[in-house]
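#data-curation
PF: Archiving a pair of folding outputs for the training set. Convention for this channel: one message per protein, sequence first, structure tokens after, nothing in between. First:
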Amino acid sequence: MKLAILGAGESGVGAALLAQAKGYDVFVSDFGVIAEKFRMQLADAGIPFEEGTHSLEQIYEANEIIKSPGIPDTVPVIQGALERNIPVISEIEFAGRYASGKFICITGTNGKTTTTLLTYHLLKSAGLKVALGGNVGESLAAKVLEDAYDYYVVELSSFQLDNMYQFRAHIAILLNITPDHLDRYQYSMDKYAAAKFRIAQNMTSADYFLFNQDDAEIQKYRSAHSVAGTQLPFGLKESKGLALNYNGSLISASFPENRAKIDTSASPLIGQHNQYNTMAAVGAALLVGIAPTEIEKALGTFQNAEHRLQPVGEIDGIRFINDSKATNVEAVWYALDGINQPIVWVVGGKDKGNDYSPLFPLVQEKVKAIVCLGVDNSKILASFSEICPKIEETQDVNEAVRLAKGFAEAGDVVILSPACASFDLFKNYEHRGRAFAEAVTAINTTGV
């Protein structure tokens, strides 16, 4: 069998190594420049590869093609493959053929990474043989190649789900559906939602589908997508038939043959959106047989990915939180809603056509001062100047932290939650978040 792999990043190289181990004749093609790390891996394995071009004749000799999720189906190389009836699949689909363990899969427009990392942490802390993979940044195929795991916790984007056909999750989690990446779906919410529901394809009655019952879009599209797995809805709003309900700091689980209560008070996660994420992860942990006491203990030791409501220091009783990943208004709403102390809000960057009006009530109620960190802050100033008279602007992250500290007092929270892209002043949201954290550390060290 000849296999062509398009894209030589984490997923492509992982797929190439697994395919080689399974006896495939592998060829890797990347239209861009291959990172040195991945070029070395391919060379060391003796796998033929090319970069900066696609040799179509060689690619179309393949019996099957694996493509990077970043490559749309509309590009000429993929269109040519489909015209020749060459199957095009994802790395996840390919890895699923060779895994002996069970898959716990998470998707949703928001919250995927936090839920995936928390689920993995709960299983790992309980001593299970568990791997982490998928959209979280690690190749599932490379993990399958290790053949050392009973469970695989996999974050799945809609792009990965698009090219999955026979793959079957044992536990599938659907967190939410909100408009995103619609340019890949002919600007159709129906098509985008259909991609998300693919996470539950091929299930049997022995499998489980956990979904957010409070999410309006999930409810809207549920009837159009049949799911053979046992359906377990979770939610904050008390409702008949909920499998998981979060009330105060307590999660109540009512599964078939399994009822439990989980105290989440030790969890460092804040905000309503993280209550949904925690319910989903706790549900998966219970389904694989982890005891409530073990789950409660592990919740207290969880550390989320950087730049997602990440505590980065405390100065004179003022807590500093890095939420640089919050690049849209909805994410900021969840951040502000989840903080109960007075807030100094650091906001700004490259505007994405934001409508800030959903934030007005929260800002009026909770925010005592605003620091704008961006090249053009005119829209933020126009939106919030009357609601929050204490407002300053800067293009320097160190000055932003100094200004915020000056507005705050002991017991307050300073949060970087930008609602905007980072590209006006920073390389990406990670760069912005690290710069913010470093500025906090510098002031904490020098006092200036």
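PF: Second:
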Amino acid sequence: MRRRSSFFQEIRLVHLLFFLSSISIPSFGQESQRIAFENVRVFDQSTLSLSPAQNVLIENNTILQISKEWTQEMKTASAKIEGKGKTLIPGLIDVHVHLVFGSLSMVEMMSPGLNQEIILDKSGKGAEEMLLRGFTSVRDVGGPIFPLKNAIDQGKILGPRVWPSGAVISQTAGHGDFRTPQERSRKFFGQPSRAELFGATFIADGKPEVLTAVRENLRFGASQIKLMAGGGTSSAYDPIDVTQYTLEEMQAAVEAAEDWGTYVTVHAYTDRAVQKAIHAGVKCVEHGQMVSEETLKLMAEKGIWLSLQNLMEDSPKMDPARREKRKPVLEGQKRVWAKAKELGVKLAWGTDFLFEPELNKEQNAYILKLQEWFSPAEILKMITYDNAQLLALSGNRSPYPGELGVIKEGALADLILVDGNPLEDISLLAQPEEKFLVIMKDGKVVKNKLD
């Protein structure tokens, strides 16, 4: 018990230093700021269509008015953006990112010189580029995210809203066991691994350790918990087919998360892993490309979210062993997308780029891969409104109170003015530099090509 206590004290110290440095004093008494979009066609997720010409008034970070008329309140706007009949859509949402792991190569991750300053610099640049691609909100499903999130929220770094999971929680020899061959078990030898000290992972075995790991992440602001429930393609020790964590361990994580009003999502590909997680009470499954129709029916029946990706077929820089492990996942993903839609499973979309920073610029292009199963309007709804519903599953643990993924009065003002009609040409979403004329996050214009 003393060894376990010492381990978590070391982890707390690393996180606490960042937590204390993140505290800022809020400002009060600022005058309200109003920005008006004139003559725009607004995407309506309920009808999967664009409205006739509308005017949209933003006050501070909220949509105050939507009107066909140019109202008296709109006349008081401090800035006017002339839409000229172009399309206004909600900010894009990616519900499966790793802002840190996606900004560093494996060589950089393993470098002896890696430190928090380097991590924040590289992931900060990645976060800014992501926002300028139109992704105003993301769910970070594992990694040392809290310092970056704090810096974004304080305005020190430009980036999207972040729903953080914190360190992934993994059993020994699980998908989140990032130890090198030289690193021995902390439980037996008393030394936390490098990845654990960086806040990338918790290796937690047994109900007491799982409870502590979940509560540690919640203590530092996790909006949901990420648990590794099965084998993975980017990990060294676990075959893709293995099931991880006992039912009791997963139930402990679910109970601890639900006591804080939030949920557990699991990394899992196979029927056995996914079904065990569902029986344990999880609300969301990441991946699932190898599940059967029987499991998808269970998910639809119980209202379990499937956070699915459409992974690339290959990458020249990918390790050959990882490429081999991915084969059954790639074989299953086309079948699962189609069958999940047919059965009415709650579907969300994400990218899941890992350790290949050059891939990040393809984030928008990956949206287009959905055309095999969805219409342009369905795609736009999924990557805005539907993904926002999954974010809302965090309840009171959501770091940003308010409604996202929709353009209506009272919703948060995360918006993109698109040059063209994405319901007619969905490829516009893959051209953010040219076609995203205005990007607004939290009522603030972060890009304006019309100036």
